[in-house]
Amino acid sequence: MLGLVAFSGQVPMLVATPIGGVLADRFSKRNILLCTELIELVVAITLSLIAWQQLFSPSILIIASLVLGILGAIEMPSRQAFINEIIHDRSVLSNAIALNSLTFNVARLLGPAIAGFTLAIFNESLCFVLNSFSYFASIYTLLSIRSEKVDASKRVSSVRDGLDYIVQTPMVRWLILCVAMTSIGVSPFMTFMPVYAKVVFHGGPDLLGILLGSSGLGAFAASLYLANKKSTVNLKYVIPISCIGGGFSALFFSYNVLLSLALPLLLISGASFITVVTSCNILLQEVVPQTLRGKVMALYTMSFIGMLPIGGLIYGGIAEHLGSVKPVFIIAGVISTIFGVVLLKKFPILVNEA
To answer: Which residue among 44, 84, 108, 348 is least crowded, i.e. fewest CB within 10 A of its CB?
Structure first.
């Protein structure tokens, strides 16, 4: 049931994100973000009341997860493309995009910790109440930003325009493919970590938190590194090397039984994943024209987040068939490593041509 709830929240990213991309290029991104945040606030308040009245059921959680997933699919392309519009100094755009990733990973580290602390001392209802209050900060920020004007010419664009641009632009096509392959490569870490915590390392929820925290710490460190980079020139080498690093971490993690080795491997995996997806984001924002940015970033988001549940289902089927999750990490590691080697030869040429 936990897997079904998670899948309900993630699968809309694979289906509805292109629609969000079209909306981002046709209408005010600030207004789209404001509307989705307000609806998400309503959902959070509703869940708070349901938790307070102890009326929870699996169907309620699945519906709420599905609604939030759809809103996220509509919101993400506008959020990614909006950064480019509100940063007026183009020389710091890459730093701004990396800082956006940094805030995401800080929330990823602190959010579950705060929720776990609140749940242990108080109850589920207060967790949802605190979540509701968190929306007021983003809503206030969006209200403080002046809405941009949208050209009427943008209203005739469609999903096909974004797809045609990607097909016709090798650099963009490889960046999107890179994000998709990286998401598939990291999927076993997100899907099967509870199995390793319980079966391999003989721990409980606290150990699972430590394992996930190690991955989050790696992601945080990678975001901090990218946020301090002054140039994007070396990214053509950073991306392939990160793919190879993520592949090796999966290969070494597969049959490892030592917790002392698992933690640094997870740190490398988290750092490699965020380095790839954030670096690809930075390069995409630099080369994609404004009129197509929303649709292209929608496909980026679909490759980034939407491929995770698909990878989880595929690897789950493989693990079920083989009777073990360990070979799955080997498969993911081999795929990531080979793809990284291909990129190491291909990327420098593509970046120079772009």
So the answer is: 348
For tokens 């943008």, the residue is: 154
Cα separation, 279 vs 235, in Å, equals 7
SS3 139: helix
Q: How far apart are CA 210 and CA 205, in angstroms?
A: 9
What one-character DSSP code corresponds to residue 188? H
Q: What is the DSSP letter of 156?
A: G
Which pLDDT tens digit goes with each residue over 32-86? 999 999 999 999 999 999 999 888 888 999 999 999 999 998 998 888 888 888 8
- C-alpha span between 332 and 316 (Å, rounded): 12
Tally the residues of the chain.
354
Domains annotated for the chain, with CATH where assigned, are: 2-145+157-353 (1.20.1250.20)
Contact (Cβ atoms closer than 8 angstroms) between residue 88 and residue 168: no
* CA 335 from centroid of its chain's CA atoms: 20
Helices (H), 87-169: 93-121, 124-144, 159-168
| C-alpha distances in Å from residue 62, one per residue of 5, 10, 104 | 5, 11, 24
- As a whole number of angstroms, the distance between CA 184 and CA 85 comes to 30
- Tokens standing for 338? 């080979």
Distances (CA, A) of 279 to 68, 135, 227, 240, 301: 27, 28, 10, 11, 14
How far, in Å, CA of 66 to CA of 126, rounded? Answer: 22
| Prediction pTM value | 0.78
